[in-house]
Specification:
- 49% of the residues are buried.
- The mean pLDDT is 95.
- Strands 4, 5, 6, 7, 14, 15, 16, 17 and 18 form a nine-stranded mixed sheet that branches.
- Helix 1 packs parallel to helix 8, helix 1 crosses helix 11 and helix 4 crosses helix 11.
- By secondary structure, this protein is α/β, with parallel strands linked by helices.
- It contains eleven helices and 20 strands.
- It has a domain of 181 residues: 2-Layer Sandwich (D-Amino Acid Oxidase, Chain A, domain 2).
- It is globular.
- The structure holds flavin-adenine dinucleotide (FAD).
- The site of flavin-adenine dinucleotide has 39 residues, from helix 1, strand 14 and strand 18.
Length: 418
């Protein structure tokens, strides 16, 4: 079959890989001059298979209000985000905060994350990909004992889902992350996920796109996707700034922009563009830098080691599609890296970036068939798009190929919203 993959972020390129591997002629279409130039460009760099949690959870409405009032707030609402679309999405998300919904959503996410880990491992054994990767686990760091003593429910859920983890004391945190010895009064202990990994998602996507080209995938870049054209509920073509394109199947991987393309076809994809920020610092002093990811529980900011850089990512801002870079938003990331790893990186020469996480109200992505013939989705991966990328793309390819997938697809497609 000839297949058009619409969008060249980490989900589009990964989908192209598994589709081309199964023998299809694949073309990836993207408006940017290169792949991974939008949300997959500057994320926090965590392959956090263990730290897989829906945002909508019991108690979240109360906690969110508390966080918003906190100094260096992890959640913000900006004036551009105050509209009916945002309100509608928030209502849907709040509807997912019950105990029952949380359990269902978490199980769906973990099913996909665990599968992704296995797919990632087999991909890495097949291809020599270089993306500043490290396999040293990640640590959620607690600044106060009261908070650390209150994670009992999270631990029970991790045990129930079979996620390997370890509660570690102050000394063990330093054993894993020696630079934390310089700030030993700032934390009390941590929660370690030994199977989590780290790396640069953009480098990964670029390397995978090269591997895609080697097996015949074509990339049609600098091309705006404008509309899907249908006859009798079946896609006939896609209109782009480079003319009309036709194929036997179409895979929607446009991240936060996916809903805009299918809305005229009557499909309401509840994906919200949740803005986040990152800073990337050249390393000044290796001995003061992290070894892997340290996630600061208090500020919800992750500090991740790349080869010769440090990536610091966080903040959830409700700002609709506004991609402006307000300098004041640097504060939480600057504070955390300076507080936990002082002198490690060059803040003066840091790259400041923002991107839009494609968030669904239940935090579960939207993968598989749609009510429109020939149209498939692999989108809506929110905070964990890179983590879930390989499992999602492999699953998508199996669905397109009408082969039995390795995991249960229950609750993963758009049909759960219809
Ligand atoms: C601050 C931050 C930190 C994060 N940290 C992590 C992390 O540590 N681990 C993790 O797993 N995930 C993380 N994420 C989430 C992750 O980055 C995303 O889920 C993932 O990048 C989404 O990939 P995607 O391919 O769906 O979207 P994108 O990367 O946005 O790709 C969509 C593509 O579609 C193209 N496109 C859109 N509209 C059109 C159009 N009309 N015409 C042509 N092309 C179009 C875009 O150019 C883009 O290339 C983070 C996100 C943010 C913002």
């Amino acid at each position: 079959m000839k297949i058009l993959v619409l969008g060249g972020g980490v989900l589009g390129v990964s989908s192209a890989w598994y589709l081309a591997k199964s023998g299809h002629e694949v073309i990836v279409v993207d408006r940017q001059p290169g792949v991974a130039d939008e949300t997959s460009y500057g994320n926090a760099g965590m392959l956090s298979y263990g730290y897989t949690n829906p945002w909508a959870a019991p108690g979240i409405p109360f906690k969110a209000v508390k966080w918003m009032m906190q100094d260096l707030a992890p959640i913000l609402v900006s004036s551009t985000g105050m509209n009916a679309h945002t309100a509608g999405w928030m209502v849907k998300m709040l509807g997912q905060c019950s105990e029952d919904a949380y359990r269902v959503n978490k199980n769906r996410m973990l099913r996909l994350s665990e599968y992704s880990r296995a797919c990632f491992e087999s991909l890495e054994s097949e291809l020599p990909l270089h993306f500043d990767q490290r396999q040293q686990g990640t640590i959620e760091l607690f600044r106060d004992q009261e908070k650390m003593d209150s994670i009992g429910a999270d631990l029970a859920s991790l045990r129930e889902c079979g996620v390997e983890h370890e509660v570690i004391d102050h000394a063990t945190c330093i054993q894993h992350e020696p630079a934390l010895a310089n700030v030993s009064d700032k934390f009390v202990g941590g929660l370690m996920f030994p199977n989590d990994a780290t790396g640069d998602c953009r480098k990964f996507t670029l390397a995978l796109s090269e591997a895609c080209k080697n097996i015949g995938v074509n990339f049609l870049l600098n091309t705006e996707i404008q509309a899907l054209e249908t006859v009798d509920n079946e896609i006939q073509s896609v209109m782009t700034s480079n003319g009309r394109l036709t194929a036997d199947a179409y895979v929607l991987c446009m991240g936060s922009y996916s809903p805009l393309l299918v809305k005229p076809l009557g499909i309401q994809l509840p994906i919200y563009p949740m803005k986040g920020y990152s800073l990337t610092l050249p390393i000044l002093d290796e001995s003061k830098a992290p070894q892997s990811t340290v996630m600061d529980e208090a500020y919800k900011v992750a500090v991740t080691r790349f080869d010769d850089r440090i990536r610091v990512g966080g903040t959830a801002e409700i700002a609709s599609f506004d991609l402006s870079l307000d300098e004041s938003r640097r504060k939480p990331t600057e504070f955390v890296v300076g507080d936990l790893f002082p002198g490690a990186g060059d803040l003066e020469n840091a790259e400041f970036w923002c991107g839009l996480r494609p968030m669904t109200p239940d935090s579960v992505p939207v993968i598989g068939k749609t009510p429109i013939k020939k149209l498939f989705t692999n989108t809506g991966h929110g905070t964990l798009g890179w983590t879930m990328s390989q499992g999602s793309a492999r699953l998508l390819a199996d669905i397109v190929n009408e082969q039995a997938p390795d995991i249960d697809t229950e609750g993963l497609s758009v049909h759960r919203y219809l």
